[in-house]
Design a protein that fits this description.
With 301 residues, the chain is an all-alpha fold. It is built from 13 helices and no strands. The longest helix is centred in the N-terminal third of the chain and has 33 residues.
Length: 301
């Protein structure tokens, strides 16, 4: 039995350790770019292998193919049309560098090289807990920004947060093909706002870790999944009924952080989806949408 509650604690603790008020925007941008570059490279390799398998399956192949920069450039320009030439050049160099390291310069393109790349892809592009940590860190930051910071930033920083949220959404839904990276403009006023508001985020996140730790302390080895995840159910229940009891703002946000982390974790490909996990995901998602839809239907006062 996987110890899911301990993983939740580790995920939340990682986010708290990585984020500081003075670098929060820079951390978010850097983490996002690393994940995007990795995702794009994995997709480029998969598409490159599939494309050349089609080429080599033709009745007549003009000549024996070998790995070189010209072949990679032809593939990128043929497959991804309409992107900025500078970005295309970077993409060519990254893909060529990766393939050259795995296959060797001027390596023949054949079934043997395909087998090597497919094996490498399976090992290097599979879901990992380390990547999951970065996804959840970004999700928690964006949730914080959307919880009330948006109207407190300058318009340029607002635009950058929207850009990060858009790219992150594409990343999560596996719809990302290419990204033209933006550089944030952070005014002194923005820095002051971040420093002042960070205490709220840090307090809620620290409290979330404490609550998850308390939940973990009651779990024995090989505890059933539903008992491990009871804290998530309790948080969802509190969120659904928060308006009835005038809940503390930090406590509400703490519960949101726990729920978001659990939902992303349980739905990630890293977690094996046995029937128990899938049933729990279905329940939590249903409760989450009940809470979210309730909030989105409320008229502004």
């Amino acid at each position: 039995m996987e110890n899911h509650i301990e993983r939740l604690e580790e995920l939340l603790s990682y986010a708290l350790g990585e984020i500081k008020s003075k670098q929060v925007i820079e951390v978010m941008g850097a983490k996002l770019h690393v994940l995007v570059d990795f995702k794009v490279l994995c997709r480029d390799i998969q598409n490159f292998v599939s494309y050349l398998q089609f080429v080599l399956s033709a009745p007549k192949v003009p000549k024996a193919l070998k790995l070189d920069l010209q072949l990679i450039r032809f593939f990128i320009d043929r497959t991804y049309v309409g992107f900025d030439p500078m970005i295309q050049d970077i993409r060519v160099q990254k893909l060529y560098g990766y393939l050259r390291d795995k296959l060797g310069d001027s390596a023949p393109i054949n079934d043997k090289s395909f087998a090597i790349l497919e094996k490498t892809l399976k090992a290097e592009c599979k879901p990992t807990f380390e990547n999951l940590k970065e996804y959840i860190l970004l999700a928690l930051l964006l949730k914080w920004f959307n919880a009330g910071l948006k109207d407190k930033f300058s318009s340029s920083l607002d635009d950058y947060v929207v850009y990060c949220a858009t790219v992150f959404g594409q990343l999560q839904s596996d719809r990302i093909l290419n990204v033209e990276y933006e550089t944030p403009e952070i005014s002194e006023s923005d820095q002051a706002t971040l420093a002042m508001e960070y205490t709220f985020f840090e307090t809620a996140l620290s409290d979330a870790i404490k609550k998850v730790k308390e939940g973990a302390a009651f779990n024995k080895k090989d505890e059933p999944l539903k008992r491990q995840m009871r804290i998530v159910f309790v948080c969802l229940d509190r969120l659904i009924n928060a308006d009835k009891v005038k809940a503390d703002e930090i406590a509400v946000f703490r519960d949101k952080l726990i729920v978001s982390t659990a939902l992303i974790y349980l739905q990630d490909e890293f977690v094996v989806k046995d029937p128990g996990v899938q049933n729990l995901v279905n329940l939590f998602v249903s409760l989450y949408y009940q809470f979210r839809d309730k909030r989105s239907s409320e008229k502004p006062k």
